[in-house]
Design a protein that fits this description.
7 helices, 4-stranded antiparallel β-sheet, alpha+beta, Jelly Rolls, single chain, about 290 residues
């Protein structure tokens, strides 16, 4: 029998915020042995190489492009072993590759599933990401395509989140490019700072990160370990396909309306994109 990750109070807080409002939460998995640095170094050795990222991370600009991010000159395991001193950031992606981490994720998500499904549809495509960061590391402004709960296991950090689908920060052109294979990092303007909501977390605390909310992160003065558990939903997939359909319309000179925000749906555009994609595949195979 697994240990409950959330108290009833934390579940109530999550339910009140989901799906489009950021929320500070508490949790009980900070001391889980799978989240210790030695275990994470061993995990990095087991994961597929293409699911590992690491780079220098101290002093980065908030608006730095993905291709501009500097290397730290180290391997992934060495970066984790020297994380206190090397000014870096490590991302272990899709940790559900490993059965023990997949089990931890399933246990946690089973607690919130009854709260999620009635609002945005069945949860699926469960994915896990673990961040190991040096003191003062920066994660630039970016967008993620999943619903996300970020669990802090070691150290502390501040995430600054911006309004979901803020048209000045993350407008239609960005979404349309992103969901057609574009980058996730966003440019930065100083006058956006006042729109941000800063949430700080320490071990035993977490943040629910809405799917459409751009955000950036700054680690405090100690090594940080965070587990991000993510999922998709029927609503999020329809939104993504509506963005792809709008991109099609824009290419032929039209000016489509923005995809609708929850609780409205985007099924018409989504199904249109899927039908056209299927037709293109059939014609391509002919």
């Amino acid at each position: 029998m697994h240990q409950q990750a959330f108290t009833q109070s934390a579940l109530a807080d999550f339910a009140s915020a989901y799906p489009l409002v950021p929320q500070h939460l508490t949790h009980t998995i900070a001391r889980h042995p799978l989240l210790e640095l030695d275990a994470l170094a061993d995990l990095a050795d087991r994961l597929r190489p293409e699911t590992l990222e690491h780079n220098a991370a101290v002093g980065l600009r908030l608006g730095i492009g993905y291709d501009e991010t500097p290397s730290n000159g180290l391997g992934v395991r060495e970066t984790i072993e020297r994380i206190n001193e090397c000014g870096s950031w490590v991302l272990l992606k899709y940790v559900e590759q490993d059965p023990a981490y997949a089990r931890l994720m399933r246990d946690v998500l089973s607690e919130i599933e009854p709260l999620v499904a009635p609002k945005t549809g069945k949860m699926f495509r469960f994915e896990g990401f673990i961040f190991v960061s040096s003191p003062d590391a920066v994660t630039p402004l970016h967008f993620d395509p999943e619903y996300n709960i970020l669990f802090q296991a070691r150290g502390s950090k501040t995430m600054t989140l911006f309004p979901a689908a803020d048209p000045d920060i993350i407008g239609d052109p960005f979404f349309e490019q992103y969901f057609s294979g574009g980058p996730r990092n966003l440019p930065w303007q100083d006058d956006w700072a006042a729109r941000g909501k800063a949430i700080s977390i320490a071990p035993g605390e977490a943040i629910y990160v809405p799917i459409l909310a751009p955000h950036h992160v700054k680690v405090h003065g100690d090594v940080s370990v965070s587990l991000s558990i993510t999922w998709r939903s029927e609503w999020s997939c329809h939104h993504a396909d509506a963005c792809r359909f709008n991109r099609r319309l824009r290419k032929i000179g039209l000016r489509p309306a923005s995809p609708r925000l929850y609780p409205q749906n985007n099924r018409a555009k989504s199904y249109s994109h899927r039908a056209l994609s299927k037709l293109e595949r059939m014609l391509g195979a002919a």
